[in-house]
Each structure stands twice: as structure tokens, then as C-alpha cells.
Amino acid sequence: MEYRQLGRSGLRISTLTLGTMTFAGKDNFNAVGNTDLEGAKRQIGMALDAGVNLIDTADVYSGGVSEELVGQAIKGKRDDLLLSSKVRMKVGDGPNDAGLSRHHIIEGLEASLRRLQTDHIDIYHVHEWDGQTPVEETLSTLDAQVKAGKIRYLAASNYSGWQLMKALAAADARGHERFSAQQIYYSLEARDAEYELVPLALDQGLGILVWSPLAGGLLSGKFRRDADQPEQSRHLNGWSEPPVRNEDRLYDTIEVLVDVAKTHEVSPAQVALAWLLSRPGVTSLVIGARTDEQLADNLKSADLVLSADERAALDQVSTPDLIYPHWHQANTASERFGAPDLALHGSRSGR
Asked: Is residue 341 one of the residues assigned to a domain?
């Protein structure tokens, strides 16, 4: 297992992170998975044995039960791993049970610490943008919790480029702890993050953690053009993330995945994960699984190395269209592209 530095911080995390949205399966989360406590202990053990050192959860997963299972499953192992959790989503019926206000962050953090049975969270994410709370209120609250020792590192998740840059600028201007990373959706199925979020991370020194790197299982190799979908597909069970906007490109991409996988005698899922780990700025992939077999297969991707030609073939079949202003910059400014620009334009310019 490789360990990569989280942005400009001194923290090193494994290239694969164990995701726990499949734990518990309460309410709508049953469409994703329903791993019980014994299964959680088993999967956490498998991940640790493979060299994974980060477990990712959130207060909203199964109404907090996912955090509870993680807390119970890691008893006696807390010093051997890092914990990541999140705050922002609606967790109750009260008027202050959502958002990034000082009130909700403190309440949410304390509740997560109790459920996880720990005195600190290593990476604490703001789970989504809150357009009604001043960013200064959010940042000053998070900064205070870092100073109190309850949070070690801060991260954002699902922010747009301007929202993330606003938060970073506000933190820098006031001397608050800034985000060390962002957790984003990024996969061969949809590379939207390359427009702004990946270049921003490279420019600002943020680590990138990727959620749903297999596009909700769409890149597992089980979905093929003109074939019946698997019965256990979360897309057949009321779960709409991620949305598929271009089915033809998705199936074209899967065909290349399958061909590359045959060459290496591995699963298409391993190839999809290995491709992502080769992308600029990517620190770690958050992998979760319905079954132990799926997890064991995904963990093997940490050791898979694709050739330059294989990476190029996958890159070409999945390359997103250039939207404005990127197509204009490609036409008129490419001679002065820097490393952040090339995260989007590199394969097109041959650099």
C-alpha cells in the first residue's frame, strides 16, 4: 500500500480509504448496503491488513448508525487508524439540525465523537456548501475545534470551485485553519472535477479524496451495453447517485475497461481504480463494498500499475468536452499552461 501526503499537511494516508456508507443500511441507505456489526469488524480488519489507514464515515449515514458501528468495530484499534467524518446534512427535524452554523457544527461534532467513541476526528469534512451561513462563522468554529484538539485536519466535500476558493481565501485572510483536502466525486464515468476542482487542488495544495470512484458500481464490469443490469444494482433500488448523462460514452468506457482488465487478468473495477490513482492530485479513493468479496477485489487495485498506453486509452474514451472558458483557453493560451491547467488539458495537448 502506498501512502500519500494529504495536500500541504504532514499527514500521510493510504491510497485506498475504507468507506462506510454501506454500514447499517438504515432507511434510504439500504439501497447502498446493509453491513452489520460483525461485517463491519470483518471489513475493517480486511482493510487494515491490506495497509489501509483511513476509515471514512459521516453523521448522516444511516442516521448516525454507521458511525456507531465504526466506533464499536474499532475498539482496541483506534491508535492504528485515522478517522474521517462529516457535518452539514439534515440530521433532525429542528430548525438548526442542518447547515454549517456554529450551533450545528458543535452539536454535530460532539454527537459524532460520542458515536465513534473517540476524543478526536482526524479529518473533519464540511459535507456540502451552506449558502445561508457566513463562511467566516463556519471557519472560525472549525478553527476553534482544531485548537481544542477535537479535530486534527479540515476538509470540504462537494463544493464548487468558487465556493472552495472563497473558503480558502477567508481562512487565509483571518489566520484560521484552512482545508487540507476536499472529497469529491470523480471517476471514468464523469470527469467534471477536472474543470475546476482538480486544478484548484493542485494550485492551492489540497489533497483529493474521491467518493464513488466506481460510479456507484457502474464501472465494475457488470454493466454492459445491451445486457440486463445486475439485480443488486443500487441504481435499480432507488439510489440516483451518480446520475448518468451520457450512456453511450459510459458503455464505450466500460468496453475499454474490460479489454484492459483481460490483459492484466484482473477485474474492470481494479482497472478503473488504478486509473484514478494515476490522475494528477488524487490522494486516496474511498472504497466501500456490499460484500467482503467486493472489498477484497477493490483492495487489490492498490498494487495494479497500468501502462502509459492503457492509461491513454482510458483517458481518450472518457475525456469530457471542453466547456467555456476552457475551450477558449485551449485555443489561445495553451503555450503558458501550468500544472493545474494541464490536469484538464494535458492529454489533449500531448503534455
From this structure: no
In one letter, which amino acid is 49? D
Residue type, 169: A
- Burial (CB count <10 Å: 0-12, 13-18, 19+), residue 209: buried
Determine the Cα–Cα distance for residues 121 and 158; give it in Å rounded to an integer. Answer: 20
For the stretch 141-179, pLDDT in tens is: 999 999 999 999 999 999 999 999 999 999 999 999 999
Does 340 map to a domain? no
CA gap 165, 140 in Å, rounded: 16
Give the residue from 210, 211, 229 showing the smallest Cα distance to 220: 229
Joined grid coordinates for residue 337: 499552461
Q: What is the CATH number of the domain that holds 190?
A: 3.20.20.100
Number of domains the chain is built from = 1
Whole-model pTM above 0.85? yes
**151 within 8 A of 121, measured Cβ to Cβ:** yes
Q: What is the mean pLDDT of the chain?
A: 94
49 falls within a domain: yes
Whether 288 maps to a domain, the answer reads yes
For residue 272, which amino acid is it? A
Residue 189 CA to residue 191 CA, distance in Å, equals 7
199, HSE (Cβ side, Cα atoms, 13 Å): 19
| Residues with active-site annotation | 61
Omega within 30 of 0 (cis) for the link into 242: yes
CA distance 85 to 43: 18
